[in-house]
Write the structure tokens for this entry.
Amino acid sequence: MLSFISHHWNGAIDWLSANAVVPLVHGLHIADAAGDPREIAEAALIAALQLFLIACVMRPLENLIPAERWADRRHTTVDRNYTLLMLLGLFPLFSFLVLMPFAQLLGGGPSTEQASGLKAWFPWFEQHPYLLFAVYYMVYDCVYYWMHRAQHAIPWWWAMHSMHHSQRQMSCWSNDRSNYLDGMLQSFILAGVGLAMGVEPSEFALLGLLSELVQNFSHANVALRLGRLGKLGERLLVGPRFHRNHHMLRDPARPTRHQCNFGQVLPWWDQLFGTALYHDEAPAATGVGDPEVDADNERGLIAMQWHTLRRFWAAFSCRAGWRPGDVSFGPGLRPIHDADAGSAQ
Ligand SMILES: [Zn+2]
Ligand SMILES: [Zn+2]
């Protein structure tokens, strides 16, 4: 599958596994516990590739053609730390300790030889692997779109997702600024969809990597409009301008304007379901108006997680937290619906 990329990718995994991972796990006497060294090598390569592209391509572009000019980058530091922690520690750990066993429990995972999911339902796809991968990707992305809408619509989910939106300086590091409980919930949903479709773990890693890279780029503080690459550009792929609109501050004069551009990689779902916002005004400032959520900016990495969990629990444990709608967080972190407050934030 995807033979050209796959050939070189597998070659790099073999090399890293034989020359670094195997000597390392033997040196540390953890070879048995560590499992398949090729899987570890693949995870390390994915993280290295992602970090390289963020630090050596996207970050210099932010200096060259910034969408917003900042006096300093103070608020991006915590987001960079989130990215490093996620790529170098938490994601690999979570994948091996939780997602892999979860996949095997549901009958998927590396040991399954039989065709399942889409291949079992439509054997025709066996002969058309690229098309199959494209279909996987579209389903994955569509599920993400609806999940993201739920993250904004359901107050207890917004309590967590609002941390991602509380950034004042949106940059190539901002994608990984998110609550870990929210991240786990999303991973289970997306992995469940992948398993149901019969995606193989190696393909799932590729799906994840492609999505993450597009998302790192769509958060970058770069004044690049994919529309410049041709009218079709920004209609085909989510770019920095499109996602910047999703992160706009709520405008009290236009209280529903920020409910736009939920797409992760493909803007098609926004176009299809009427939430796409393309416009030619100067990019709006990003962040949140709710003082409780904005206070995340004064918190460190751990405190931010803790406060977000408290917000989540306050919303999860009350009736208002389950009623869809825009909210802010009031006394005791309880969600107050904009509709009930009488005025939109
Ligand atoms: Zn969002
Ligand atoms: Zn975002």
